[in-house]
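A note from the maintainers: we've had questions about how concatenated examples are separated. There is no special marker in the raw files; a new sequence line simply starts the next protein. For clarity in this README we add a label.
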Amino acid sequence: MLPIISPSKLFSVLGALALATAVHAEDPVTPPIPGVAAGGVVIELIKDGFKGTEGPIGYSDGSLLFTETQANKILRIAPDNSVSTFLENSNGANGLAINASGEIIAVQTLKPQVGIVYPFDKQKTFVENFEGTPFQRPNDVVLDKSGGIFFTDSGTRPTKEIPNPPASHPGVFYITPTGQLKRLANDIERPNGIQLSKDEKVLYVANTLGEHILAYDIGADGSLTNKRNFAKLDGWKNEDNVWSSGADGLAIDDVDRLYVASNSGVEVFTDKGEALGVIPLPKKPQNLAFAGADKKTLYAVGRGAAYKIPLLAQGFKGRAK
């Protein structure tokens, strides 16, 4: 015999189910990706309305730093999600890196250059041009264990404000530990995010206008060889008669999986370039980084918003990003 449920109790149960369904429908959640993400974990919006969101990097105190490019600031997200200004007047800092001395190195866009922006008494410009040609849009940066600096310059591109910009000079560059500047590649349409494998034998570069993440083998002197299509992106689509993957920031975890901010969200690949899944977000991510004491939280920033994604995977602890 089935138990009899009173109308009031039935309505209460149905109401609770409806509320749970509504909450679930409103909150983005992670899809199940083996070893990476448990299904159904809520993706938390920390804040929306920032003026440009780029350059996230895990900081030594467990917080996350990122750049508010249009506001000319570096911001800090504490573990409790509170947001504060870490550095004013960042010279339009975009991508960030942290060296062995704890100094913050930034690729900078107001006066295009690469150098130390924090602490104040250590501020220094490393490079601001290549063979006399000024940089145009320094975009992202990653440091190797020897202190060498890999960075991208995405060049100029037409906008509504500047429909006919100066000739573009996009490229991938390397500053050796002794300060010598080398251009490693100048055949990528729009180089964007840049990242190293754990053993620093492979360099990944995101080509925003391309369908694939690119990979190169790295020589002992920092030179690049064996350019190849590493991973095919799900975000490849046509918008305004322009094909683009939207490929932007890159991050790796402790087993060398690669995480890519793209038009589809956060795309995840094995160290062999095999697609594992996509974590969709309400707004297109522009860059991402693992942070927190255990580096099991992936932060994604983009289109003025910042998100916090609890994962099963752990970020690589061998460098800040």
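[label: protein 2]
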Amino acid sequence: MTPSTAVAVATTDLPLGPPLRGKVRDCYRHRTNRFGDTLVIVSTDRISAFDWILPTPIPDKGRVLTAISQFWFDLLASGPAPMAHHLLTTDVEAMELPKEIDLEPIRGRTMLVRRADVIPFECVVRGALAGSGLVEYRRSGSVCGVPLPPGLAAGDPLPEPIFTPATKAASGHDENVAFATMAAAVGVELAETLRTRSLAVYRRGAEHAAACGIVLADTKFEWGRTPAGDLLLIDEVLTPDSSRFWPAAAAGRGRVPESFDKQFVRDWLEQSGWDKASPPPPLPADVVARTREKYLEACRLLTGHLPTGVT
């Protein structure tokens, strides 16, 4: 599938009741005979920047996010320390969806997951100095209140990955908070468990990414609890939308490389004259094509293949 023939899915309207629409995902409650109460999560090709959903989707972006998330969920559930997660299947034929639904547009971009109550914090793990962490370090020598050694440069690896939670904002930017703030809200025991598990997932992800020639600079996780109280890794995991991936060959002291994500989009918007206060302009075709290729490259490098339905 080439950019000229790839058909973008900007929104869905499945006959499953009113969806909960996020910046990228459309979520539907769904009752199945096999799994009981579940959620159907469709990753669309919507793309956001500077807290706006842009009017131009990126073809196959949702397939990339789903394929990468499925890869990590499968990897994390294996090995000596399996991590519990919410994914049940990405096979749309197994989701017991109403027969009138055309499965082709949602194939490869849909997850059926266990329902869970979302813990209202982003569990951020940072392994390199970049973004808001770099800004704070230059000002105070710390990141989210975590002291770091002096003399670190932009893009440098941290001595150890650090856990820096943030509040989940319904709109706008998430806000970094101290670990003590999170612990006061959810309880010390749960906060410590979230920190331990988030660091463990980060380390496993960073190890695999390094073997693929990629630096996992930072990422954010979401966790939820089932009605039975089980703690699950939920939402997407270790994708270009939730993580800062760098090509290892471009990373070095004093350099923050371009990420495998929507950097082309952000750069074009910055230069377009858009005021970031009014609806954003449509993206030009070349920016769409280059952004699509960057997402596909991340998928190929991390998982070893392209998403379902993409050639």
